[in-house]
Amino acid sequence: MTYIGFWIGCCAGLMGLAPSGGPYPSLPVVYQTRPAGAQRGTATVITVEGINLQQTSQLLFSEPDVSARILEVRDSPGTKPPATPHQSVRIELKVGAAAEIGIHGFRLVTPFGTSNWVPFALGPFSEMTSDHGNDSLGKAAPLRLPVTVNGVLLQPGAADYYAFEVGAGDEMVFELEASELGSKLDSVLGLLDPRGESMAGNDNFFASRTDSLLGYKFAKGGKYVVSVSDAAGRGGEDYHYRLTAGRFPYVTEVFPLGITRGTVGRARIRGYNLGGTEEVEVDGRGSRREGEFLALKIRTAGGEALRPARLELGNYPAVREREPNNTVEQAQPLELPVTVDGSVGDESDRDLYRFRARPGELIALEVTARRLGSLLDSFIEVLDASGKPVPQAVLQAATENLVQDPLDSRTLDLSRLDSFTKPEFFPGDFVLLEGTELVRLQEALRQTDDLSVAQGYLGQRLAWLGTTAQHHPALARIHKVRVLPPDTRAVSVELPLFRLDYQNDDGGPTYGKDSYLLFTAPRAGDYLVRLRDLQNRGGNRFSYRLTLRRAAPAFELFLDDAFSQYRDG
Ligand SMILES: [Ca+2]
Ligand SMILES: [Ca+2]
Ligand SMILES: [Ca+2]
Ligand SMILES: [Ca+2]
Fold it and tell me: What's the number of domains the chain is made of?
C-alpha cells in the first residue's frame, strides 16, 4: 500500500468509529514515526505523523525511564480539503542510560482520545539516519561502528548501501529490525567486498519474522559494504528499518530452551563475539507467574549479548534427550511428569520417547519450540509399544458437500455449507474439511445471507482431535461427521469413513507451529511419542522442549454415545 493508500485506509477504517459523524474521524491515529528508535542515555527528537494529533498533550511510553516533551504540532503541508488534515508532531525523547534495550512503544494522548500503539526501539549504540543518497555501491554511506542506522527503502527495487572498515580477524554482526517496528520490509542483507562481489547474505534469520541477521568473520582487514534490500523488490514510505552493525556479542542459539521453575542450571550458547563463553548460568528462581517466559540477559566474556534469550520457565523436572533414539528399540524412557530438552539434529532425526500409562489415563503432550525462537515446526505422534500409530477415533461421514471458496487457516467463517431449503448442519455438528481438519460448528446457516461459523478461540478456528487448522483450496470436500470409537466398523457404504490417529502438527491458537495433543491411553502399557520436523528439516537451531504430564479432564467436550473426548483445562 502506498503512503496515501495507507492514510485513506486509516480514515475509512475509523469513519465507523467517529461518534458525531463529522467530516473526519475524531480519534487520533499515528501512521509514521521517524526515527523509529533511539539510543538510551540520550535525548532524541522524533517526528510523529498522523491525523487528529492537533492537541497532542502527552506521550505515554512503555519503558518508565523515558520522558517526552512535545516541541511542536503543525499541520503537514500538502493536504487540501476535503482530505482529512494530518499533522506532524515533533517530540523530544529523553531516554535514561539504564532503560531496557529492545522494542518498546508509546501512545499519544489528545483530547479526542489516545492514539494507536506505536512500536519504538531503544538501542545501546549511537544512531544515524540514512539520507537516501546511498542507493548505489559507489555512494555507500560510511558507518562508524558500532552504530544503528535508521533507514527507509523508498524506491521499489532499490537497495541501501553502507561502507565500513574492519581489521583482520574481526567478527562483525549486522542485525536488521523492521517487522516488529510496523515496517512492511521483508529485509535481505548482503555483504560485498571492495569490488562489489557478494561474500555472504541473509534473508530471513528468525523463525517467525522476515528480518535478517548476518555474522561474518573477516579474514582480511579493509573496507567492505553491507546492503539492505527487500526480498520482493518493493519499497515505499513504510519500508523503514533499523540496521545495527558492529563487533558486539550476539547469541544465536541457547540450549536448553528452558529451565524448571525454582532451579538454577546452565545453558550452552553459540553466537558471535562471545569471547570464548560457551555456557551461562540460568536462574529459574524468583516469583514469575504461570505461563511467563524468562528473558535471560546473557553475559559473556565479550560483554552482554545485544538481545536476551527467551526461555521457558517449566513446571516439571527436566531431562536431556539422549541420542540415538530414532527407533522403537532406542526410545528413551521417561517418568511423568517430565520435560525433555532435545533437538532435531538433521533431516533424518526422529526422536522417540517411551512412557507408561494406565488404562483411560489422559496425558497431555506439548512442544515448546517455535515460541522460543527455534526453527522447528514440530509434529508429534503417539505410537504403541511396537511402533504402530494408536487410533483415536473414527469419523463416519453423514453428508458430503463442496465448498466454493478457498478457506484461510485462521478464519472462523465457513461460508455457505448448507442449502437454505434443506438445512443439514446444526450448531455443535462436527465437520471434516478436506478429510484432514475437524471443526465444530458454532452457528449454522439459517437465513439466505447467513454463514456457517466454526468454533474458535481468540478469533482463530479450533481444530479438534489433534487435527490442524489449514488453508483449504476452492471446491474443498467437506463432510458432516459423527465421531465414533476407534474400533467402529463402517456402517455406510455410500459415505466415507475417516480414521484419526493420535498425532498433531500445530496445537491451535496461541501455539503457533508448536504441537499439543491429548492422549487417552486405550489400555495399560508402554507407549511411544515420536517427534520430528513437519518438513523433515533439522539442525543446530531446531531445539525443543517436550512436556508429558497427566492431564485433568477439566470439562467434557462432547459425548457421542460410546465415545467421549476431553480437552485439558
Ligand atoms: Ca527477509
Ligand atoms: Ca534428536
Ligand atoms: Ca533422534
Ligand atoms: Ca507444527
Answer: 5
